[in-house]
Write a structure and sequence with these properties.
It contains 9 helices and 24 strands. The chain is α+β, with helices and mostly antiparallel strands. The protein has 4 domains: 157 residues, no CATH class; 97 residues, Immunoglobulins (Immunoglobulin-like); 113 residues, Immunoglobulin-like (Sandwich); 72 residues, no CATH class. Strands 2-9-8-4-5 form a 5-stranded mixed β-sheet, with no helix packed on it. Strands 11-10-13-17-16 form a 5-stranded antiparallel β-sheet, with no helix packed on it. Strands 12-19-18-14-15 form a 5-stranded mixed β-sheet, with no helix packed on it.
Length: 490
Amino acid sequence: MTAIPQPGSSRAVSDRIAGPLRQVAARQWNVVAATGVLKTLAAALALLLLTAVVLGTAATLPGALRIILAAAAWAVVATSGAIFLRPALRRRTLADAAFTVEQRTPGLDERLSSTVELSSEPEPFAGSPALLRQLARQAEADAAAVRPDLIVPADGVKRWAIVLAPLLLLWLALAALFPRPLLGGLYRTLMPWKEHLPAMLTRISVTPGDVTLAEGDALEIKASINTSSGSETETSPPLLLTAPIDAADARPLARDLQRHSPREFRASFDNVLQSFRYRVSTDQDESPWFTVTVLPRPSVAALDLRYDYPPYARLDAKTVPNVDGDVRALQGTDVTLTLHATEPLDLAPGKSQITVTEGTRQRTLDLRALDGQPNVYEAKLTVFNSGSYRIQLVNRHGLTNKDERPRAIAAELDQPPKVAITSPDSQVTVRPDDDVPVAFKASDDFGVAKVVALVQVDDKPAEERDVPAPPDADRRQIDGQYLINVADTR
């Protein structure tokens, strides 16, 4: 039945015409889309297979070159997909389907396309209603005979399916015959920035691979030999090759790995102090080079101590450079510890600090950087009691110093000075004008500040007289002499 248009409006196409044309348009899209997909798959499989073979067999290619090759392959695949799938993005109208039917079916005399085109024209321009009804009846008869499968054949889809089949078989054959090179190359095509393949894709699986350690840490290197044939006892121990990083031309050092199981081997390093490269080598294959990066721990390069004694001791300040750090001082002495570190320290709260232990009491001292002196830090300690202290250093990597041995603090109490007259005897007879030499010994644990002679005649009050000490005498032990003039005492 033909729809009856309203005056001044366009005419609708009959469902008897539109239905077959829609089926033709849908089949057109299906065939174009399927052909585009198959073309894209064929191009992608061919390009990715070539790239995977190249990257899988040339394992030593630099990372930058791998990225360039993989990026080029993916760019070509994306471009091919855009070209091959673009026709499927175009919307197909009933008029397009009508023209296609008329091109593939002789004798239709453009009745289908004319009917579709005239249906969109306003009534004053469409022509006589009687002629239009006659044209519509003829077009409906033509549409009833349309077979979309004959109008739009799927020959292109079949051809590209035939092209795609050998490519799939080639992929399967190479994957079966050379699984590790092909899958390894595909892995590098997908992730070309990765330096090393996963363990399952290598003949020699090495752990930990690239690793970062703190100076002095232990390291264990494990190697697993992945073989598909042969008895387990036939696997000979591989060699571990090591070389320093800063000497690229240096000949690697070789050592045997210790067997842990029939196909697993290990090597242990108890105290790693510097960075190096390593690889595992067998008589059939060898692993890539891996890097062990050793981050230095902070340590104390030198330690200076300055003693500022309490005022009553009347002792000059003393600086002792580059000592082991043990503190021995009079109780109440202020000790300035100047620490020379091997690298910059983290001075955030709770990081680099000094912990002082005095019996059950514990306190912490903060380190501060000295201006204009790189890696030099200072802390102040007042000696109250005997005990010990530990230096904790933390660098910018969060690594701590390994030497945390306690350093001793010995607090010495100030003992009273001692003095003794060694000559003459307690009773001596002299003339009124004699000079009497009085020999004495004076000592103090921290130094004699002053020697005073008390001279008394009969019942008179004692008189204090300063006794000069020898200029070069050791202040802690003075052997001196004081001359008494008898005439002056009267």
